[in-house]
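[recover] target loaded
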């Protein structure tokens, strides 16, 4: 299964795995699953870290290196992804989450998220 982690799940997986449910921790360690992080999540971390948000203290460059060394694959933002955002109903106003939804839909991935608003979209989700 191709799993795209939303930003908070990504941060928890990297630094606070005890915040994840046991079933999600199990999915993230199952070798048959391919784990992805989005460039949108890194962008979100950079912006919110710059604003001084306490929950975004991680150094993005170190996070990227750590994720790649643990087998995660980076998912870049493509023109197809940005065009997909335009087709999404405005059920969720967060631009980073809307991009993650678009990417998951375009790439046929399951989005791992705690955000109930994301589940309003026709995207495969897990939590």
């Amino acid at each position: 299964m191709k799993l795209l982690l939303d930003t908070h799940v990504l941060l928890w997986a990297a630094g606070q795995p005890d915040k994840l449910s046991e079933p999600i921790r199990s999915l993230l360690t199952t070798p048959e699953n391919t784990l992805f992080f989005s460039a949108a999540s890194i962008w979100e971390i950079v912006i919110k870290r710059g604003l001084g948000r306490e929950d975004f203290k991680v150094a993005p460059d170190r996070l990227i290196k750590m994720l790649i060394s643990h087998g995660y694959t980076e998912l870049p933002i493509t023109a197809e992804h940005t065009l997909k955002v335009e087709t999404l109903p405005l059920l969720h106003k967060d631009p980073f989450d809307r991009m993650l939804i678009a990417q998951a839909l375009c790439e046929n991935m399951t989005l791992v998220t705690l955000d109930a608003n994301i589940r309003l979209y026709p995207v495969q989700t897990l939590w």
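[recover] notes: The chain has a mean pLDDT of 95.
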